[in-house]
UniProtKB/TrEMBL annotation:
This is Uncharacterized protein. Residues 74-85 have a biased composition (Basic and acidic residues). It comes from the Eukaryota. It comes from Trifolium medium. Residues 52-85 are annotated as: Disordered. Residues 56-73 have a biased composition (Acidic residues).
Amino acid sequence: LGKKVLGGIKYGFDNAVAQLKIANLGIELKTEGTGMLRKVENGQFVILEKYKQMEMEEDDEEVEEDDNPEEDHEEGHDESNGGDA
């Protein structure tokens, strides 16, 4: 259940970033350093201590996905309709 919840949160975060990029086409949005488990503190992105292990696990999973791009990809969350949700 935890992975499904985290997957849903990640989808929502990635979707919000994608929407902001489209809404601001004339501006190059910098997203480096952002993440769903981070927050802004004193003008900087920080990972709360309780999320550091989850962040490392997420990074490991992304590396594995990059190594196997076709594996375990499921279409969903309105991917097939061109974003007309």
